[in-house]
Design goal:
The protein is of the alpha+beta class and about 140 residues long. Helices cover about 45% and strands about 20% of the residues. The strands form two sheets. The protein has a two-stranded antiparallel ribbon with strand order 1-2. It has a two-stranded antiparallel sheet with strand order 3-4. The mean pLDDT is about 90.
């Protein structure tokens, strides 16, 4: 039973990082220059399944003797889609033709992703709550 709580807790951690990354993207949606002088690129967290070695356990193990133990962050990559170009001749970062390279961040897309991450976070909280209820019910059976 505690395995399920651990899996949901890893989901909570992953979704919190996802929300932090989305917040960073929204905050930098108009950042034309970072500390290195480059245009900000949208960040995307990449998750992977966390596996535990279960050799010899026999119960619930998958092929190869590994069992799912939740999710973990593999990396935070940069979106390689093209930058947005806007005509702003007065902007200090405008090129010779008056166009500014803006980050490849769509605030609308980021808000949809934020709602999705928030719902996934809530689902993991509900799963933990259900595990706690089941544990309380199991304790009450013996009385």
């Amino acid at each position: 039973m505690f395995k399920g709580i651990d899996i949901s807790a890893s989901g909570l951690t992953a979704q919190r990082l996802r929300m932090d990354t989305i917040s960073s993207n929204i905050a930098n949606a108009e950042t034309t220059r970072d500390e290195d002088g480059n245009t900000y690129r949208r960040k995307i967290p990449i998750f992977k399944e966390k596996l535990e070695n279960q050799m010899g356990s026999g119960l619930g193990s998958t092929a190869g003797g590994f069992e799912s133990a939740g999710v973990e962050i593999s990396e935070i990559s940069e979106d390689q889609s093209p930058f947005r170009l806007e005509y702003r001749p007065e902007h200090p970062d405008a090129n010779e033709e008056g166009y500014v390279e803006l980050p490849n961040v769509s605030v609308m897309t980021e808000m949809v992703n934020m709602i999705d991450a928030s719902r996934a976070y809530e689902a993991n909280i509900q799963a933990i709550s259900n595990y706690k209820s089941m544990a309380n019910s199991a304790l009450n059976i013996s009385t």
